[in-house]
Amino acid sequence: MKSRILFVLLLVVSIWACDSKTSSKQETEQTVYKDVPEFNADSAFYYIQRQVDFGPRVPMTSSHEQTKEWIVSKFREFGLEVQTQEFQARTYDGLIWDLTNIIASYNPTAQKRIMISAHWDTRRIADKDTQRIDEPIDGANDGGSGVGVALELARILSTSELKADVGVDFILFDGEDDGEPEHANRRDNSQIWWCLGSQYWSKSPHQSGYKAYYGILLDMVGGKGARFYREGHSMYFARNIVNKVWNYGIELGYSDYFILKDAGEITDDHYFVNKNAGIPMIDIIEFSPEIGFGRYHHTHDDNMELIDRRTLKAVGHTVLFTIFQE
After folding, report:
1. Tens of pLDDT, residues 258-290
2. What phi-psi label fits residue 100: left (phi over 0), alpha (psi between -120 and 50 degrees) or beta?
3. Three-state SS annotation for the chain
């Protein structure tokens, strides 16, 4: 009897010791994250306001040209290498537009590169509105927010004492927000009439043989109450990148923004980067599986009153954290 009791006690002690070792091992194996600079949402907000102040950034207008010069000057002010990719594209209604993709590179000699993208143009009509339908929109969120976050990321990367171990290419696409209006009687389905800049760049990149480890597209990332679901093409082409970014966002405390639920597929700039350039790119975009785009989408409600610094912080901090962990 005593020997049986002794055996049981030895077994319990042995199990406890193994559990202690396992627990200790798990504690030592916890991920240690690299330090990350602070993302300044006020600065990103200011960059959005500056874009809106130029007026709607519709291609072939003075507002569009002034915005381009300002964006290029900001990237250069931050010390990035900047180049522009000028091209022409035909619109759904037969116009020939002069368009410009803007490319700015941080740490251009680094072998491992991350691509951060947005579109910098705005829509020439408010076809989802009930008034002033034929007038262009401000595009504070649809266009402006992605550029604002990208500019703030560029500023931080170039000025912070903490340095990322990767190179980052900011590629801002032009001519994204066109396409036939919602109320069009006849749709020309011969090609996709929006995402003109990414369609061009993905087939003719600014640098022959250009490759990036992965890319993140920022589209409508500043709206009040925004929720970011896992977009369909992103999950198909770059599921592991989606999961990484969403998990980082949640770990950083932004679970109200990064939702672990799938949404539908959206033909956005990232689709062409994936399909034509072979670079796995995800889309952080406000698009709900229940209601689709927000009510402001392609209306005059897409103005500065829509922009929320908390949303900019959630997205900007998460993307910055992701870059610094590479």
Report:
1. 999 999 999 999 999 999 999 999 999 999 999
2. beta
3. CHHHHHHHHHHHHHHHHHHHHHHHHHHHCCCCCCCCCCCCHHHHHHHHHHHHHCCCCCCCCHHHHHHHHHHHHHHHHCCCEEEEEEEEEECCCCCEEEEEEEEEEECCCCCCEEEEEEECCCCCCCCCCCCCCCCCCCCHHHHHHHHHHHHHHHHHHHHCCCCCCCEEEEEEECCCCCCCCCCCCCCCCCCCCCCHHHHHHHHCCCCCCCCCCEEEEEECCCECCCCEEECHHHHHHHHHHHHHHHHHHHHCCCCCCEEEEECCCCCCHHHHHHHHHCCCEEEEEECECCCECCCCCCCCCCCHHHECHHHHHHHHHHHHHHHHCC
The Cα–Cα gap between 309 and 268 comes to: 24
- Residue 299 phi/psi, 5-degree rounding, is -130, 175
Residue 140: which residues within 8 A CB-CB, separation 6 or more? 48, 51, 52, 222, 302, 303, 304, 306, 307
End-to-end CA distance of the chain: 60
CA-to-CA dists, residue 249 to 164, 200, 234, 258, angstroms: 18, 31, 16, 6
Q: What is the pTM of this model?
A: 0.90
Query: Packing angle between helix 146-159 and helix 309-324, nearest 10 degrees?
Result: 50
Distance CA 116, CA 170 (A): 5
User: How many Cβ atoms sit within 10 Å of the Cβ of residue 115?
Assistant: 24
Structure tokens at 141: 């969120």
Residue 182 CA to residue 50 CA, distance in Å, equals: 29
The per-residue pLDDT for range 137-180, each reduced to its tens digit, is: 999 999 999 999 999 999 999 999 999 999 999 999 999 999 99
Would you state the torsion angle of the CA atoms of residues 232, 170, 70, 120, taken in this order, to the nearest 10 degrees? -10
